[in-house]
Design goal:
Number of helices of chain A: 3
Helix content of chain B: 25-40%
Structural class of chain B: alpha/beta
Radius of gyration of chain A: 18 Å
Order of helices and strands of chain B: EHEHEHEE
CATH topology of chain B: Rossmann fold
CATH architecture of chain B: 3-Layer(aba) Sandwich
Structural class of chain A: alpha+beta
Oligomer: heterodimer
Number of domains of chain A: 1
Order of helices and strands of chain A: HEEEHEHEE
Strand order of the largest sheet of chain B: 4-3-2-5
Number of helices of chain B: 3
Shape of chain A: elongated
CATH superfamily of chain B: Vaccinia Virus protein VP39
Largest sheet of chain A: 6 strands, antiparallel
Strand content of chain A: 35-45%
Number of strands of chain B: 5
Distance between the termini of chain A: 19 Å
Largest interface: A-B, 41 and 41 residues
Radius of gyration of chain B: 13 Å
Number of strands of chain A: 6
Distance between the termini of chain B: 20 Å
Number of domains of chain B: 1
Chain lengths: 131, 107
């Protein structure tokens, strides 16, 4: 990971920028009912290996910042909203997912989980400037 | 965080939003810039950047993804995007040749 960041720095001009964007496993995904603005009726965590990988990526970025190869210009978080027709389609999606936990932690009883669902997934980004 | 809470649309077809929308959220000015999208996959962001950037190089180890990206660039008649096989750890790119590098789901 550090070697990839060093390569990025090598190909950047002075004060060129590197955008690093990744899913944010520190934040659970939200399951909303009905629409992207609907009530949160559940959350989805990340698989343990994913959390470990993400921490390694974080350390790699901290390493190049600590060595003065880049400086951080901006950080932020986005939420990707992914629609699902119903709970079954969401479960099919989770069954094959490499990052998300397989199960939703529901906040409502089964009778209130019907209909369209939206999953909001956190994506963090940081804009780094070459030094 | 600068944009905490901002929601951008995804979709089951691509699971991530259109490249132009996501790039705008990052707040990086791509106009007239040389942009390298490393770990580009099929070029969702590279193709999104092409409308503003001078040139875009999309690098990925997955040949089939690159082929899909090339086909999409052709369909969109984008002539400033190049797709190249490669890995983020060892780029066959000259030193100091890009103003912007994108790592999206790369690290």
């Amino acid at each position: 990971m550090v070697d990839a960041l060093e390569e990025a720095r090598r190909v950047l001009v002075d004060r060129g920028v590197l955008v690093d964007a990744r899913p944010d496993s520190r934040v659970t995904a939200r399951v909303r009912k009905g629409s992207a603005r609907g009530a949160i009726i559940g959350t989805i965590g990340s698989q343990r290996p994913t959390v470990t990988d993400d921490r390694m990526s974080d350390r790699a970025v901290a390493d190049v910042l600590g060595r003065g190869l880049f400086r951080s210009r901006r950080r932020g978080r986005l939420w990707h909203a992914i629609p699902f027709e119903d709970r079954r389609e969401l479960q099919d999606y989770l069954d094959d997912h490499l990052r998300f936990s397989r199960r939703v932690r529901w906040r409502v009883p089964r009778s209130r989980r019907g209909g369209p669902l939206f999953v909001e997934r956190a994506v963090r980004f940081e804009v780094l400037e070459r030094r | 965080m600068a944009s905490a809470g901002r929601i951008v649309p995804g979709g089951l077809g691509y699971l991530r939003p259109p490249g132009t929308i996501e790039l705008a959220a990052y707040g990086v000015d791509l106009r007239g810039k040389r942009v390298a999208d490393i770990g580009a996959g099929e070029g969702r962001l590279a193709l999104g950047a092409a409308a503003q950037a001078a040139t875009v190089l999309a690098v990925d180890p997955d040949r089939s993804a690159l082929a899909r990206g090339r086909a999409e660039a052709k369909r969109l008649r984008l002539r400033n995007v190049t797709f190249r096989e490669g890995a983020a750890q060892r780029l066959r790119i000259e030193d100091r040749s890009f103003e912007v590098v994108i790592f999206s789901w790369t690290l």
